[in-house]
Each structure stands twice: as structure tokens, then as C-alpha cells.
Design a protein that fits this description.
Blueprint: H1 3-36, H2 42-50, H3 57-68, H4 73-82, H5 90-114, H6 118-126, H7 131-159, H8 163-168, H9 179-188, H10 192-221
Length: 222
């Protein structure tokens, strides 16, 4: 295994773990707000949050370029503070993976929150528990299986992300190349042994997480 291939594996795991953590925290919080709060523009906000799952990844990547590019709104702010841009960096890969993975977390967690028996929530309120205490002691324990399922789906989606990543972070060997990008790069150059190895790694990891997800689904149904 050459250093570029090893780098792609390590970078993929790093990007996937960070973006999954972001999806779990931000997506979980967003799902809670969407499930239990009523406010003006709620449907519009939810549509915007889950839109990346419906768009082609390259389109999502294009809009991320417009937003995080050196002349983009957020890109200018980041560059003025750090002196570094987001594009063509591993940070860009994290952002791209986070954006496409978070909608799956929101959908899964929101469904889990909405399935919690409202009587349990009302009882907790009547007993004098605060909203935060009710969320931590009642809602999260009852919704944990659905939340964990959302995290698994977000992880799988982040691991396999290609289109948005190549648009925002590029495909630079030893710098921004993740496993899906490396597979494309090696397939283009005819290095099929490396393609088979990386594809097999993705197959095993994704298959394992899907197996866990399906097992959890069956437990929820029973």
C-alpha cells in the first residue's frame, strides 16, 4: 500500500468521524427544535435543512463553493480571520461531508422524537421538571434507538461522499483525496488493484454499519 492510498484511508476516516459528530450534534438539536417547537417559517427551515439530500451532490458542491470560496460570504470571513481558505483543503472535505450527511440525521432524529409518547412528556412537566431535564431524562432515552440509527446513516453517507467533496475540496493526492476520490483517480489511471482494495474497504465498513442499522430497525419494530 503506497502512502497516497494510506493517506486516503486515514483522511476518509478523519473526515467521516468529524462530519458525523457535527451531524449528530447539530442535526440532533435541529431535529429536536423541528419536532417540538412551533414558529414562523418552520416548514421553510426544515426544507432548506434537508434539501441537500434531494440535490445532486455536484449541485450541493457548487453552492458550497459559492458560499465558502475566497470571494464567498463565509469564505471571506474565514479567510480574514484565519488567513486560509476552505477550498482545496481537508476542511472543505469535512464541510461537504457534513452538509450531505446532516439531513439524514435530522430526518431520523426528528422521527424518533415525534414517536415519543406525549403523555410521558406532559407527565414530566406536571411533576415540575424543566424542559432540559425532560429532554435529558425522558425524551432522549426513549428516542435513543432512532437517534443512533440517524447517526449510522449519517456516517455511511459521509464515508461515501464524492460529488460535493470534489467540488469544494478538490482531488489532490496526499492532501484532499478521500477513499471515494481515490477510487475515481485510480480507476481513471487504470490502477485496478488499488480500486478493488479501496472499494472492498468501503464495502466492508458500509455493510457493517448497514447491518447494525437494520438490526436496530428490527428491534424497534418488535
Amino acid at each position: 500500500m503506497d502512502k497516497n492510498t494510506l493517506f486516503a484511508i486515514v483522511l476518509s476516516l478523519k473526515v467521516t468521524l468529524i462530519s458525523t459528530l457535527f451531524a449528530a450534534v447539530f442535526g440532533g438539536f435541529a431535529a429536536y427544535i423541528l419536532a417540538f417547537k412551533k414558529f414562523w417559517g418552520k416548514n421553510t427551515l426544515e426544507t432548506v435543512m434537508i434539501l441537500p439530500i434531494a440535490l445532486p451532490p455536484t449541485v450541493t458542491g457548487y453552492y458550497l463553493m459559492m458560499l465558502f470560496g475566497k470571494n464567498g460570504f463565509l469564505g471571506k470571513i474565514i479567510y480574514s480571520i484565519t488567513g486560509n481558505g476552505v477550498m482545496f483543503s481537508w476542511t472543505g472535505a469535512v464541510i461537504a461531508a457534513s452538509v450531505v450527511a446532516t439531513p439524514l440525521m435530522i430526518i431520523g432524529a426528528k422521527a424518533a422524537f415525534e414517536s415519543v409518547d406525549k403523555t410521558m412528556i406532559h407527565t414530566s412537566t406536571i411533576l415540575g421538571y424543566s424542559e432540559a431535564e425532560t429532554a435529558l431524562n425522558v425524551i432522549l432515552p426513549l428516542a435513543k434507538k432512532g437517534i443512533f440509527a440517524g447517526i449510522i446513516l449519517a456516517f455511511i453517507r459521509a464515508l461515501g461522499e464524492f460529488g460535493a467533496t470534489v467540488m469544494l475540496a478538490g482531488n489532490i493526492p496526499g492532501k484532499t483525496t478521500t477513499i471515494p476520490l481515490a477510487i475515481y483517480l485510480y480507476a481513471s489511471s487504470g490502477e485496478m488493484e488499488k480500486v478493488h482494495m479501496l472499494a472492498f474497504i468501503l464495502l466492508i465498513i458500509s455493510g457493517l454499519f448497514i447491518f447494525v442499522y437494520r438490526k436496530m430497525e428490527r428491534k424497534n419494530e418488535s
